[in-house]
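Issue: copy button drops trailing tokens. Both records pasted manually instead:
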Amino acid sequence: MPVVYAVLCHQSPRHVADLARALHHRDHAILLHADAKAPPELHAALRTLSALLPNVHVVDSVLCSWGGWSLVEATLRAIGQSLALPTAWRHFCLLSERHFPLQSPEMIAKLLPDGASFSDAVSLTAMDRNHRADLAHRFVRQWRELPGVGMFSTGARTISAARMERYRLGSQWIVLARAACERLWATRDDDTLWADFRTSLVPDETALMSVLLGTDRGSGLDFRKRGQTFVAWPHLGGSDDSGFDDDHVRAARARGHLFIRKRPAQLPPFAARLLASFPDLPKLPPMPEPAPVAEESGARALAESLTAMLRARFPGVGIGAAPPGIGPACCLDIRVPEQSPALSLHLVSHEFSAFKLLLAWRRPFDGPLSPIWLGGYETTIIGARLPGLTLAREVYLPEVPDNGFVNADNLAESISIALAAARRLSELVPAQAA
């Protein structure tokens, strides 16, 4: 029974080529999507793979942000392209470039029952306290995506209990039967279904399964409450499903999972032998890895320009840029001498047209995801992966227009307002951050 594999790619041509070799089969299809901001070498590798391997196709790129609706958009785009294929496939497997198959393509197809979809997503009532708080955190605020960077809150919103009951939370790495994909694709323009998720945090872990399992759109479909991907990532906290080594590969296979992530740069011996045992592996040329990221002159030039503009009002102001390849294309750290080290002002962007100005409060994470206060300002956990700001809180400054979303025309004025607030709040941080 044919299978479609949709692979979301962002960095490594070699990883993508390894995965395409492992999954390639004359009866199956592979759809490759590269984040629009991925290195040019990756985009070139996807075109090469599509030219060399039958049934390998490239999906038009979406500019993706961690935690943003753009990842759902890329997934829906892959679903739409898969449904347009001439192949009468039966299952759609969503993977990342760091997935590793635990079975050959033939065996994966045999192990997927006709008409069955697989997801570990659960409803609010079935969650423990921490997961309920996590789900609420994603929906009780309005979140706005800065293209290519991440999600930032623009304020609180009220979600009724009935709407919360419709939401599902689980891994984004789902396996869907064709009928489930057809239901999703048929509803893609129904804003009444998707509006909440477009302005929520990390909707790739909620949107698809909430529509299929929390509304009547999935009525009659066969869903199995099981994820087919063994999540292997030590940074998740040292659970039994942490790490990618041969012991975890064996354990994942023994549990019946079809895939494991996050694969390391070098496969351990058993995993390498397992991959080599798959039949009919195609031969591919070496795929060059991306070159080291060059110095970002745009960010440096912007930092120098802003420093000159702000120096008269804030003597001693300093603006530094994150090292190239770390975080978004523009990630500036703006400080004045009297500013507490626990408070940092950042200007972030990917395309140097739309910017987000945020005042970050670095404090020990105490577990709660709900907003707390610093002086007279509300703060909540930052919903973007930015250098050094994991689990830091954003201090919302009502004086800065549009919740800190600014364009190139009013950067200096907005930064001046935020620096004044940072200087004033610095007096409160030592007592509150202890």
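Record 2 (pasted manually too):
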Amino acid sequence: MGNYVIRGGRVIDPAAGLDRPLDLVIEGGRLRALAEPGTVAPPDGFKVIDAAGLVVAPGFIDLHVHLREPGHEHKETIATGTGAAARGGFTTVCAMPNTDPPIDTPERVAFVYERAREAGVVRVLPIACVSRGQAGRELADLVELAAAGAFGFSDDGRPVHDSRLMRRALEYGLLTGRPVIDHCEEPALAEGASVNEGPVAGRLGLRGMPAAAEEIPVARNIALAELTGGWVHLAHLSTRGSVELVRAAKGRGVRVTAEVCPHHLTLTDRWLLGAEGNACPPVGAIPIPETLGPYDTRTKVNPPLRTWSDCLALIEAVRDGTIDVIATDHAPHHWLDKACEYGQAAFGISGLETAFGLLMSLVHAGLLDLPTLIARLTAGPGRILEQAGFQVPYTFRPGEPVDLVVLDPDATWEVRPEEFVSLGKNTPLEGVTLRGRVILTIFSGEVVFDGRQA
């Protein structure tokens, strides 16, 4: 493991309440000291990294990614997905179980850990299925899956529609200490929908998904968590109504945590119109690129891009802590999965490598402060993992292992999907200039991404 002195950076560590210039001394993968700038002479053999004018933070943690292995290695592998994570500043990622076969047995949980040790460059924590085969009919062996190392349980894109099954899952969650993670979608309202229900859907002639399709299962899941005392984690919230339900539930002491994706904070359904959507404000935190045309399937994501009113409600929920976590829902696809008409295209955006730059658009617009943003990428998910019994670095503690990221909040760069480490090049941000860049990622004391060499 490497030995480093990282000098002069603005250290933002929300869990420790730090936001000031400091030097970090890393020895053997552990934090040896946090010191006032310029007060530490580099020991022999230590590499010095000049972080003056930059931000140093704990490594980002993503509770929701799709690494596609096993079974869909043409879309992504654990090797390429973790490489993309490192490039995006993420040092821990939680892998969803919608693989082929799905992660519904202890042996398949063990497979993900084994492949991550062999090929991964950052930490991978598997999420296991709620139901056998993600079929929604009978529970998987949740106790055994937890014992094998599953962080939580989710049927991911297949919501747990059966309320009795969801209740039982939450009760087993009490036994294991793990969350049940639900994709909140009412199938009868969402069937056949590709986009947000509203004027844009009408203009394009596409079937829309109403906000109620998300908010009904959000309300049900909260009610079941309140009934059982279990822990429900709500994936990728996208509507104002969902935020209001979660805020009220937390006020009553319900054990509910929630996440939001970068694209749901910054992009709106106006992006479906392509560049002409810029003439129909508000369009979101960044303008639509001129190269994006209407019906571009790279804008298709589930839940769909909503309205700017929804974005603002989600941003406020990030600010006040109603939403605990920002997670990418990194969903890489082969180009063929998007090379078709809009209604037939796969849902999903490849998001690990653009997350920080995209989120910084909110900071530069004055909608979010940088320490809060970093908190939702570090302390928020780190504490959730801790509550589930997983100890991963999310704060700087002398004597303990170090994961960190060095950031340049003002560096501009153009999104070029062909340069992604991820096999998934599916992003509507192609050609967009983002302001905010990951410079360096250190995992377990080793440099796993060095943007200074790019």
